[in-house]
Specification:
It is built from 11 helices and 4 strands. With 450 residues, it is an alpha+beta fold. It has a domain of 301 residues: Outer membrane efflux proteins (OEP) (Up-down Bundle). A 4-stranded antiparallel β-sheet has the order 1-2-3-4, with no helix packed on it. The N and C termini lie far apart (92 Å). 27% of the residues are buried. The C terminus is likely disordered.
Length: 450
């Protein structure tokens, strides 16, 4: 009973932990954004890409989430961090083990005390079966701080995985929209080339019958060749975008299936909210904060090394020289021991660990306790995010931006091509040939390509 009381007292005191507790740094964020839409719903944590209403895009993103190599690496990192947490947390509990052995040994008969074969068998055989247990009492909270650090590291790794997922989804959607935009540009370029080709034929006919000078023909030819030169460039950009998208999908470079035209895609809504609320959703900020918590907990784990380590060990089993009597009552053996170990002189090793942990947990140029390089990164990311600045680093290669004016340009060029076709089919062509078609480059809506 006395031993149980001691264990209970030690377990109660073990709830204390040395080192500073984590305090979230204060960041000066605005109350609201300058241009905030209060009516839209929160779509940041949903499958927002489905609002484009393109089944092909949904299929490509689903394939990327399964096969992308960065996603697989991030998932492996989470598994590794979870294993570290399980291993660290196991030190809270007694470690139980077992041991079974059979030994045959012969002692010297002339060295030391002579052995009589009638009293002690020489050589002798010994059989032993033992169950043992050991437990380090976390009196100063070292294991608790290590577990806190490992748990925060696991959460940080999960946030990193979430960041990779969000970045991957955004880049797949962006690359797909870029691809559809290039497809639309290619269609416009082909239509423009056909229009310039007809215009060139008409000017050649006019020049043949002496209605226009040679200069008009050469201008039309230049516009035609310029439009023709744009098509291989757009086709090359399409191939490059397909290759980049194939890498994001985790496949070899190949053709990418198409869905709806870009003009028919619906634009997703932008989530609204207060800056402080939106900042908490960003995985890079959440990851930096968890790294700060992990670094802060390492200070307590390092300071606990100044104090003694208390451990309890025990064993219970049977030992006999006769295998048939191994489990007899008289063959029972047991042992119980307590051990206290503490540092006296370490040459500054513990002091160096504390300084290292403290330095890692301090803001660059800050004065708050528990600051770190991760804390500086945390505050930097929060302040940058509150000003609308995106993260500085990305785990995936950047993709080209989608031109927002593409649809407007397409509508204008389609309208111009329609007007040109109507004019070419009209009977008043010869009368207007010196007007509307005299300079195809400066005609309404027709601009020189390139």
């Amino acid at each position: 009973m006395r031993a149980l009381e001691i264990l209970f007292i030690c377990g109660s005191v073990a709830g204390c932990a040395v080192g500073p507790d984590y305090v979230k740094p204060k960041v000066d964020t605005p109350q609201d954004y300058r241009f905030a839409d209060k009516d839209v719903k929160d779509t940041a944590n949903t499958e927002w890409w489905k609002q484009f209403e393109d089944p092909v895009l949904d299929q490509l993103i689903a394939e990327a989430l399964v096969n992308n190599k960065n996603i697989q690496i991030a998932a492996a990192n989470v598994e590794q961090a979870a294993g570290v947490l399980t291993q660290t947390r196991s030190q809270f509990y007694p470690q139980v083990n077992y041991n079974a052995s059979a030994t045959r040994q012969k002692a010297s008969e002339i060295a030391g005390i002579p052995l009589s074969g009638a009293v002690i068998k020489n050589p002798a055989t010994t059989y032993e079966v033992l169950a043992g247990a050991s437990w380090e009492i976390d009196l100063w909270g070292r294991v608790r701080r290590l577990t806190e650090s490992a748990r925060a590291n696991l959460l940080a790794t999960q946030q990193a995985q979430r960041g990779v997922v969000l970045s991957l989804v955004a880049q797949v959607a962006s690359a797909y929209l870029q691809l559809r935009g290039l497809d639309a540009q290619l269609g416009i370029a082909n239509n423009t080339l056909a229009s310039y080709g007809k215009t060139l034929e008409l000017f050649q006919l006019q020049y043949k019958y002496g209605q226009v000078p040679k200069l008009n023909v050469e201008q039309a030819r230049s516009s035609y060749e310029t439009a023709a030169a744009q098509i291989p460039q757009i086709e090359s950009q399409i191939a490059q975008t397909e290759d980049a998208l194939s890498v994001l999908l985790g496949r070899n470079p190949s053709a990418i299936p198409r869905g709806k035209p870009i003009q028919m895609l619906a634009a997703p809504q932008v989530p609204a909210g207060l800056p402080s609320q939106l900042l908490e959703r960003r995985p890079d900020i959440a990851q930096a904060e968890q790294n700060l918590i992990s670094a802060n907990a390492q200070i307590g784990a390092a300071k606990a090394l100044y104090f003694p380590t208390i451990s309890l060990t025990g064993a219970f089993g049977n030992q006999s020289s006769d295998l048939s009597k191994l489990f007899a009552g008289s063959s029972t053996i047991w042992s119980f021991a307590g051990q206290v170990t503490g540092p006296i002189f370490t040459g500054g090793a513990i002091k160096g660990q504390v300084a290292q942990a403290t330095g890692k947990s301090r803001f660059a140029g800050g004065d708050a306790p528990g600051d770190s390089d991760d804390g500086a990164r945390f505050r930097h990311n929060e302040e940058a995010a509150s000003k609308g600045i995106p993260p500085a680093a990305s785990t995936l290669p950047p993709q080209p931006r989608f031109p927002v004016c593409l649809v407007v340009r397409a509508a204008r060029l389609d309208k111009t091509n329609l007007q040109a076709r109507r004019l070419l089919n009209s009977r008043s062509f010869h009368r207007k040939s010196r007007g509307f078609l005299a300079n195809p480059v400066s005609a309404p809506g027709c601009r020189r390509v390139g």
